Structure formats: structure tokens, C-alpha cells
Amino acid sequence: xxxxxxxxxxxxxxxxxxxxxxxxxxxxxxxxxxxxxxxxxxxxxxxxxxxxxxxxxxxxxxxxxxxxxxxxxxxxxxxxxxxxxxxxxxxxxxxxxxxxxxxxxxxxxxxxxxxxxxxxxxxxxxxxxxxxxxxxxxxxxxxxxxxxxxxxxxxxxxxxxxxxxxxxxxxxxxxxxxxxxxxxxxxxxxxxxxxxxxxxxxxxxxxxxxxxxxxxxxxxxxxxxxxxxxxxxxxxxxxxxxxxxxxxxxxxxxxxxxxxxxxx
Length: 264
Description:
The protein has one domain: Rossmann fold (3-Layer(aba) Sandwich). The protein contains twelve helices and ten strands. It has helices at residues 10-18, 33-43, 57-62, 64-81, 115-130, 152-157, 176-181, 183-187, 204-215, 235-238, 247-257, 259-263; strands spanning 2-5, 22-24, 47-50, 86-92, 135-139, 141-143, 162-165, 173-175, 192-196, 220-223. The strands form three sheets. The chain has a six-stranded parallel beta sheet, sandwiched between helices. A two-stranded parallel sheet has the order 6-8. It has a two-stranded parallel sheet with strand order 7-10. The longest helix has 18 residues, at 64-81.
């Protein structure tokens, strides 16, 4: 049995939808260490997938205390309560956002440059100190046909006239369905941090151009100013059988999976 936190959120909802033997945790917001220990004990779960977080970087900058509680303290409480249960925590590609080289980045070289990223990296380190067998997934920007939260796929599908992406920025973006499809293999990973998602050798501008063309979307594409790369090398996870489409293939798969919705 797998206990899923953030089960009503973007990632947690898809895991609940696609994976077997899962149970949803209640909201962890404001929970104490004892509350979480009791929750984990009562769940009867063999593994924990922790997706709950404050992921809005602007919110984290404005309220670093709330960010620290959600993004550092709560995972630490889960680690202390896990009692040998496999713990999977979602981290972020943002831990690379202060690096000066262009990438692609491997797991050992990190440099967070904002509150959210610093808290995610501290979370990784402290949880692994408590539970060396736990797995930290440095997830990319994820998308789906999902109305409740803006994401790359929906931003393009719903664009009216123009979108802007940089020909100088390289970044993986991932179909959340493929995240859920990989969770069984993730639970079997040795402890540590893993870059997790689709890879690409194309810029965000190139990917967007090819997707707009393939979908026959009459949207003007503008070249945005240079932005920092968040370009990850995912070969470490690949060695353990984790498989993702490349970025463009994933986008086209998402479109095909949702073709009936897109016709409406």
C-alpha cells in the first residue's frame, strides 16, 4: 500500500488515478511532527510518495516561513515517521537555477538561487540524512490537459495570438502521465537524488515551434530574452529502467490522449 500526500494536486491526482494500491493522505498543512507520525502509523502503508508542497516560487519568496514548513519541515517529519517505509519525495529542477554553465546538469552539481530552490535542496539533504534509502525526484515542469493549474501544454492550447519562448533556453518538460507510469520503478530505486523527466537537445523555442506546427495551431511564436537553462541529464535514472518520451514526443502523446477534448 502506498500513502500519497498532495493527492488532490497536479501530480498526486495523476498518481492516485493511475497507480494501484494507493491511499490519499489528508492535507498536511499545519500538521505537527506527532500528527504526521500518527498519520503514517495509522495508514498501514508500505511506502510514501510525497508530492505536497508550496511550489509557487513567488509565494515562497513572500512567505519563506510557510515555504520552510511545507517544503522542509513536513518532509523531515515524514522521514522520521517512515520507520523503514520507502519514502519518495518530489524535489525540483530549480536546484540548478544558480549554475553558470549551460548544462545539461548532473545530480552532483547544484546551486539554488531562490527561496523555493534552497528549501528543496535542504529538504533533499536532511531527508537523506535521516533515511538514506529515500528517493529525491528532481522533477521538471510538468503538463497535462488540466484546467485547474496553468501548465505549458494548456498555455499553448489556449493561447489566443502569440507566445514567447527563448531560443537560448534549454529545459526538459514532462507529461505527468509518464511520471505516474514510472512510479513503480521509482519505488525500487536505491536511495539518492535523481533527475527525473523527459530530455531534449532542443531549445524551448524550437520545441514550441515544432509542437505548434504539428498541431496546426495558428499561434505566433516570439523569441523571448535569454533565460537560465534548467537542462538536466537524466542518465542516472535511465540506468534503473525509468523511461520517458523525449519532450516533443511527450507533448504529442498528451495531445493524442486528449484529442477528443481538444476537438471541443
